[in-house]
Write a structure and sequence with these properties.
Structural class: mainly beta
Number of helices: 1
Number of strands: 27
CATH topology: Neuraminidase
CATH class: Mainly Beta
Radius of gyration: 17 Å
Strand order of the largest sheet: 1-24-23-22-21
Amino acid sequence: MAAEVRDPRFRAVVGGTAELQPLGSGFMFTEGPLWHAADKYLLFSDMPGDYLRKWNAQGVTTFRKPCAQSNGLTWDGQGRLIVCEHATSKVTRTEPDGSSTIIASHHEGKELNSPNDVIVANDGSIYFSDPWYGRMPVFGIERERELDFQGVYRIAPDGGDPQLLVDDFEQSNGLCFSPDESLLYINDTPRAHIRVFDRQADGSIANGRMFFDNIGSGVIEEGIPDGMKCDEHGNVYVTGPGGVWVISPDAELLGIIEVPENVGNLNWGGDDWSDLYMPSTTSLYRISMKVSGNRLSYMT
């Protein structure tokens, strides 16, 4: 089994014989996996090469190039593609006719840093993180920042300016909801920890507190907290040293899904949402799990 077991409960998540499957390699730096259930394909970003790639059973092809060095991806409730663009510092939506609509670009007149990861709640509101990795060489276009903080934002279901939810992260990055969407988890990459917030009735967040600390040391070369997802039982999956760390809702490390490269992000896919796809530096991997992903709007 391609895993390090820290708690017996881990076997109910991964099983005893799960094997890591390589699906493609030769990429530059992969991110943002997103499964299309109807057509059975996976999108993922290859940022330095400015590729948005597509994998299916026949192999890997180009879905979009150029792609503004896209990073995080998701579908909204209407099946439209939501994209975090490093090169433009925008969040965009791809319309059914293929055109692109800007849904976030500025906060109080200043350009966003570089939207990184994004999720859509069941009520249609969009949450995204905004570190400044996309203003660094390789991962984006090197340029000066206009904002002096790295926040997390919400866009209301009917659109409008992004609402700043929290601004005290060194580098806000991966984010995910608990299954009932009452909690929002956000990780801070250099600080190597995850914080959790209560989601309020109006979509804002409150009562931020530490959920899990010491996910490595925040050094990129050893593996860092970056992408993050939740399963149907509320376990939190976060990238880190050695692969993907699986953490129970009560903040106990259950085990680590071992991957031979540093994992950039992860997401659920497959017929019953129980395949875990993991873009990992130059390669794409998959492992079949005994659990499935928590059901976001596009998954139902």
